[in-house]
Design goal:
The chain is an alpha/beta fold and about 190 residues long. Helices cover about 30% and strands about 35% of the residues. The protein contains three helices and eight strands, in the order αββββαββββα. Strands 1, 2, 3, 4, 5, 6, 7 and 8 form an eight-stranded mixed beta sheet that branches. About 30% of the residues are buried.
Amino acid sequence: MKNTAIIVLLVLACSCFGSTRPSRFYVLTPVAEETDGEASDLAVSVGPIALPRYLSTPEMVTRVGGSELLLAEYDRWGEPLQEGFERTLATNLARLLATDHVVRSMWEASLGVDRTVRARVSRFDVEDGWAVLEATWTVVREGEDPVRVRRSRFTREVAGDEPAAIARALSETLGDFSRTIAERIREEAP
């Protein structure tokens, strides 16, 4: 009887300390628009795309004062950010170029591609209410070496401080990045 009373008291004591807040999960979302042009049979491979190591955590990251990183304990990405970034970029390019032939680099060897998109992302986070994506990137024609590496920076204001607004603003910067790449691919089209 005494052991039962102790167990009941321990359970009650633990419940008094409160429960932890449940984690919320977010994903990057692709652009909604599609190109006005006709469907294309252009084949594009996306990758490799390199993200900074500080983004390999499941928590959403914000930057404070330029060099301090804050990880949101309960606000997390629903998939590794590396995979979400590549998936969303590939989906965006498929929609913007009106092609069903956009793949991520893991399948590149099994598909003859016309262009390969490669990028090294140096920033993909939020600071002072602004989502920031900075990257160097190139579009390579099949069988050729990269002609020119480009640098791009995209920012979008975050509408509020909610994690959903952060995910939306980061998705928008990735959409802007995708439009820039799609434009470059269209300029180089035969």
